[in-house]
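Take a careful look at the protein record below. Let me know whether the structure tokens fit the sequence:
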Amino acid sequence: MTDVQSCQGCFFKRCPDRVLKVFAYIILITALYITCFVTTTLSKPGGPIFSLFVLVLLALVAGLLLKIVRIPPMLGMLLVGIALSNIPKVKEWTSLDAKISSDLKTISLMIILMKGGLSLDIMDIKRVGFAVIRLAFLPCFVEATVFAIMSVLLLKLPWIWAFLLGFVIAAVTPAIIVPCLDELKKRKFKIEENNITTMLISASSFDDVVAISAYMVCLSSAFSSDKPLYLQIIQGPLEILIGIALGTLLGIVLWVIPPANSDKVDSRIRTALILVLGLCSVFGMSHLNFNGSGPLSVIVMSLTAIKGWGEDQLVTDVVDKLWILGEPLLFGLVGRDIQFEFITLEILWKTLIVIFVALFFRLGAAFAAVSWTSLTVKEKIFVSFSWIPKATVQAAIGSYALAVAVEKNADEIVVEYSRTIVTVAVLIILISAPLGSILMYFTAPLLLERIDTGHCQLAEGEEEEEDEQENDENV
């Protein structure tokens, strides 16, 4: 082997898998764009293909750079989208049709909801206990209620739109919590022995389902204001029932179709079917004016299907790989919805007040949710700090109301409310994602105990000596 080959092998061994995957996707995107550039005029500057290429490429690079310095990568992706939509000349070159942007965000929403549904595990409730349910429900509803009240008082939103915004903000993100917990585990902190890891990961997944379900109820009511009162009252619960029923039915169908003949072939067909059915559910229900049923059905379908399949690693891997592209696309497009011309200094400072007041109440609710557990006071404070980060759900559903408003050609005041939700969602991501991860990293040495490796080794040595003495006595 030559020195050059040796250096190359050494480089690729040291380079993290995530980085290599991102580089692979960058090469793939660039190759696809070059192919489109020589075959269609849509790839010229100002065309949709050029705009998407620039957005996804820069978002991937920005996310990778921030990840290297241990900052949540979605922040860089958001900032790329904000920059592309607010720098005049760049905005002209990277303009994108509102309908295309809306459809792409809906597809990204479907991917992240499916990813969440496939990772849910009902058995975690039995392993950890009722604390998972309390941690999923209590902080979510407390923060959503406080946020709604403050939004009515300061941001002058109607009550239904205030609660719509509250449930957008209330969801926590496993995308930041899980990497932080993995890093703390490597640093030998006690987070598995006392079930902190299982509790946080399980509760964060259920928390997202709770927030999204409540959000869809509010969304249905917000866009049914022109209907009779009795229809407005039943619209939200009706859409939840339809979403659960449709998702359960499709999940059961996926148990038996395709038939279990060859695992490899079945997994490929399962992957194609669950993706196509997810797209049909989201776009089909939206076409039938049941906007809340589609996203909820994707979660239920994924959860039901994976329970019937057992563990199908290929399906999960494909959805995870799709999210590598879906993440920069979603956060970049959400960043593009931020228009500085619609944001005044008054709205900005009022929004910041609402965010920090709601976060304060959320911390208290999270602490209360784990008060009836065996955790120490310091560990309960750490769990509260872990419940701060927000990103993925806010990006996924924060702009969904705006997409529905654009699709329905809603009144200007409805579009304005939708833009307010997008603005607040982006601000909460920019504030809570780094704040939560920083608090988790830097308060861990103060709030968590470390695993005493020396003590463990000493205990193992004493057990070996006792075993040798017993053997000698037996002899």
In short: The CA atoms of residues 355 and 428 lie 7 Å apart. DSSP finds 21 helices and no strands in the chain. The two ends are 56 Å apart (CA to CA).
